[in-house]
Automatic annotation (TrEMBL):
Keyword flag Lipoprotein: no
Protein name: Probable dual-specificity RNA methyltransferase RlmN
GO terms for cellular component: cytoplasm
Pfam families: Radical_SAM (PF04055), RlmN_N (PF21016)
Entries under HAMAP family matching the protein: RNA_methyltr_RlmN
GO biological process, one term: tRNA methylation
Catalysis: reaction(s): adenosine(2503) in 23S rRNA + 2 reduced [2Fe-2S]-[ferredoxin] + 2 S-adenosyl-L-methionine = 2-methyladenosine(2503) in 23S rRNA + 5'-deoxyadenosine + L-methionine + 2 oxidized [2Fe-2S]-[ferredoxin] + S-adenosyl-L-homocysteine; adenosine(37) in tRNA + 2 reduced [2Fe-2S]-[ferredoxin] + 2 S-adenosyl-L-methionine = 2-methyladenosine(37) in tRNA + 5'-deoxyadenosine + L-methionine + 2 oxidized [2Fe-2S]-[ferredoxin] + S-adenosyl-L-homocysteine
Domain annotation Radical SAM core: ranges: 97-335
Documented EC number(s): 2.1.1.192
Length: 352
């Protein structure tokens, strides 16, 4: 398949056009057609010559994704199952928030991180998504908005779907550059959040890139014993190394980090776990934030269940009393396949 033109940063598109005998200003024209007028075919770019259109069609496609399933929840959440050109499938989620419309994108086909509670890892990593395939997820949601009567736009992006974003670092950075471009979708850097399970070298690299993009870390446990039992990555990058990378990030950026913490009944939700978490973060209170996440059960991981509400509230209370900024995440899409990777897993079972 031809690569998606969505994957090109503007400066890369300029260089490509110059190499193929085109003028530099063509890049701005193409950019406007793609991200402001949001055309779906090169033939719609009416101020380009036939030769330029033919050149683009020879080397690129626009949208590499095929929409397979759309699930709409009663709270306005929409979950998409997309098919890639190689017939692999990925998920994308639209969440309506008080502050705007947020889209959660996938960055890999499958995942090798090995979190034992997660539906995303039921399929081992097949490949990385290209930057164009990641951008296309945003564009298809925006096209969904464009077809409706009321005006709506993608205002926030979270890179928290299937896969480990920092295991696909270069493509994820290209994706961020494209959607952040002021002449394109113009999604503000501070409205973009990238999540990692704790790839220490990439956290340090991310700290040095100068972007104002938000960082979230999937912590899910306050000590090595529990974290290693539910997250295989902790065996390579234990909490001590992870916290060292966190300190490096905070020192270099002075930007707040969010710690994601899925509440698993009887596993990581005891008051003593909350006290350990508060101790772990006590020297980082001003620049850290804990997001307590109700667990969406996964049938293939029936050893786990969601923490009762009273246990979540007790955990939250311990953190607050110890001065830790925290919140209990509002649930989205509970009446559809809510857990990341569930819809894809269900469809793959049907196909097989």
């Amino acid at each position: 398949m031809k690569p998606s033109i969505y994957g090109l940063r503007k400066e890369v598109l300029i260089d490509w056009l110059l190499e193929h005998g085109e003028k530099k200003f063509r890049a701005n024209q193409i950019w406007e057609w793609l991200y402001q007028k949001r055309v779906t075919g090169f033939q719609q770019m009416s101020n380009l010559s036939k030769a330029t259109i033919a050149l683009l069609e020879e080397h690129f496609c626009i949208n590499p994704l095929k929409q397979m399933i759309v699930q709409e929840a009663s709270d306005g959440t929409v979950k998409y199952l997309f098919e890639l050109p190689d017939k692999n499938m990925i998920e994308t989620v639209l969440m309506r928030q008080e502050y705007g419309s947020s889209v959660c994108v996938t960055t890999q086909v499958g995942c090798n991180i090995g979190c034992t509670f997660c539906a995303s890892g039921l399929l081992k990593k097949q490949r990385d998504l290209t930057a164009g395939e990641i951008v296309a997820q945003i564009m298809l949601v925006q096209h969904y908005f464009d077809q409706r009567v009321e005006e709506e736009r993608v205002s926030h992006v979270v890179v928290m779907g299937i896969g480990e974003p920092f295991d696909n670092y270069a493509n994820v950075m290209d994706f961020i550059n494209v959607i952040n471009d002021a002449k394109g979708l113009a999604i503000g850097a501070r409205h973009i959040t990238v999540s990692t399970s704790g790839l220490v070298p990439k956290i340090k690299q991310f700290a040095e890139n100068g972007l104002q993009v938000n960082l979230a870390i999937s912590l899910h446990a306050p000590n090595n014993e529990v974290r290693s039992s539910i997250m295989r990555i902790n065996r390579s990058f234990p909490i001590e190394k992870l916290m060292e990378a966190v300190d490096y990030y905070l020192d270099n950026t002075n930007r707040r980090i969010t710690f994601e913490y899925i509440m698993l009944s009887g596993i990581n939700d005891r008051p003593e776990h909350a006290k350990q978490l508060a101790e772990l973060l006590k020297n980082k209170k001003k620049l850290t934030y804990v997001n307590l996440i109700p667990y969406n059960p996964v049938s293939e991981h029936d050893q786990y269940s969601r923490s009762p509400k009273e246990d979540v509230l007790r955990f939250y209370d311990v953190l607050k009393k110890n001065g830790i900024n925290c919140v209990i995440r509002k649930e989205h899409g509970t009446d559809i396949d809510a857990a990341c990777g569930q819809l894809r897993s269900k469809q793959m079972k049907k196909s097989s």
